[in-house]
Each structure stands twice: as C-alpha cells, then as structure tokens.
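4.2 Preliminary Data

To establish feasibility before requesting continued support, the project team ran the inverse folding procedure on a target of 286 residues. The structure was first converted into the token representation described in Section 3, and no sequence information of any kind was made available to the design step. The complete token record follows.
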C-alpha cells in the first residue's frame, strides 16, 4: 500500500467515515490512477473532468456511481493533498420517484416456510421483524439482543447512529433454538470463520434463493423485507413517528412514503367507475 493511500485512509478514519465509504473512495481514486497510468497526485483537474465524462458517456455508469467518484476526488484532492477545494460538475440527477416493492404478509410467510435452513430463516425473520438494513442485520451480535426489554440494539447504523428496534416474541423463540444449536460468539450471523460477520452479498443470495423456492416474484433484494416492515406496521395502525424511530430514518418524509403502499388506504378508495351512474337530471359532461 502506498503512503498516499495510507494517508487518504487515515484522513477518512479521522472523520469517522464508514468502512464501506472508505473502500468506495479508495477504489474510485485507484481506478482514476489506472486510467491515466500515473499517480493520482499528478492528474490535473481537467483530466479528472474528462475522466468523469468517460464514465458517463462511454462506460454508461449510473449517476450515483459518478457522483460517488466526484465525492472521492474532492476529498482526495482537497483533504489528503491539501489543495484548493475542487469544483467538479456532472449533470444533475433526473428526478425519478420510484415506490419500493412490498410483499403481502402471506408472501412473507411463504418466504419463511421455504427457508428450511434455520440460519437462513432466522436471517430473513430478523430482517423483517426488526426492519433492519442488510448491513445492520449481518453486524448483529448476540449481546445486541435485549431479551428483558424485548429490544434489539443497532450499533453505528447509517449516519453512524445507534438505535433500538423491537424484538419480536415469535423471533425470540427462533433465536433461542438458533443460539442453542449454532452457538454464535462474536457475530450472530457468521462465516466459516466464526470471527467474521456474514457478507452482505451472502445475505442477498440467501434471500434470492429462498424467494425463488417460495415462488415469490416481487421484491428487489433482501431490503424488500425492510420495506414490508414499515408498510405492514402502518397497515396495523402504528403511527409514522414511531416507525421512523424504529427504522432510523432521519426525516419523517422517508417514512411517510410508505403510506402510498398501505393496502387499507388504497383498497378503501372506490374507483369513479364504481360510484354508480349519475342521475339524468342535472348531469354535466366533463
């Protein structure tokens, strides 16, 4: 590892960047250096801007990937190298509003029934019952389970924030069996090396394999279960502020978007076609 890379990583660690952000930033700068076949401290601003155009126009990378590269380059050149703040521009993101896909409660139960491996079933049940992000569920530790208060402690989640979420009574029964059989030590969900947590990609593969076996077609990844958690709680009458705290949302608007997905709210609305024919008298054309 070069001294320059060590310094960049040290600068990010001092600012408490997550491990994922550190790897993404370093990776972006490494790819920039490989593109020009020289050290990144010898690459000009104009060359960086040309590289961003290359990422967008030739490699056809997504806006979010290009924006991450912009953030990485700004950090490297202004913080690690100590240069003047660098202005880099990419076209603004197209404003697209896409609602998350949500499974019915029956479909969720089909997933659990299809997961015959107790470890896989517990992973999916924990994600759904507590509304966890995949990065949160794979970093759970046995001591995070507060059985006396029926709470799960989520440490250093998105935004480096700790929070508590609910520990389901039904999940607790599954957990007791799992803890007795698998005897986890450091991590609740571990790899072959019991001292390492399950990788996010492994959790995703488990979800897709179980989804296929259950014959469920909806849902993009294990994060779908987190969407289901919010939507099903709203359908059960839980207020959005409580759900916001359980999920760790910084803004209530992030939570209230699930109101658009609640079955009761939508199914109670009648189509104008079903409102009955208007009386002949007093009817006005649109």
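Position-by-position output of the design step:
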């Amino acid at each position: 590892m070069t001294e320059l890379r060590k310094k960049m990583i040290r600068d990010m660690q001092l600012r408490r960047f997550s491990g994922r952000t550190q790897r993404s930033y370093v990776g972006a700068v490494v790819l920039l250096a490989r593109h020009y076949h020289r050290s990144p401290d010898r690459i000009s601003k104009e060359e960086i801007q040309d590289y961003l155009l290359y990422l967008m126009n030739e490699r056809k990378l997504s806006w979010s990937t290009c924006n991450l590269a912009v953030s990485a380059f700004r950090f490297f050149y202004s913080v690690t190298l100590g240069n003047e703040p660098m202005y880099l521009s990419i076209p603004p993101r197209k404003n697209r509003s896409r609602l998350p896909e949500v499974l019915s409660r029956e479909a969720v139960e089909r997933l659990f029934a299809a997961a015959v491996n107790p470890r896989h079933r517990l992973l999916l049940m924990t994600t759904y019952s507590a509304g966890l992000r995949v990065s949160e569920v794979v970093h759970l530790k046995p001591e995070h389970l507060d059985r006396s208060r029926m709470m799960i402690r989520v440490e250093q989640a998105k935004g480096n924030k700790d929070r508590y979420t609910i520990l389901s009574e039904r999940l607790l029964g599954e957990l007791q069996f799992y803890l007795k059989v698998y005897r986890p030590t450091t991590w609740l969900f571990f790899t072959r090396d019991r001292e390492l947590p399950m990788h996010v990609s492994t959790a995703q593969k488990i979800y897709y394999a179980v989804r296929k076996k259950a014959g469920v077609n909806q849902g993009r990844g294990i994060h779908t279960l987190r969407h289901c958690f919010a939507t099903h709680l709203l359908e059960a009458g839980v207020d959005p502020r409580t759900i916001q705290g359980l999920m760790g949302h910084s803004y209530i608007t992030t939570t209230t978007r699930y109101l658009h997905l609640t079955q009761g709210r939508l199914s109670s609305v009648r189509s104008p076609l079903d409102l009955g024919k208007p009386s002949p008298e007093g009817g006005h054309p649109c």
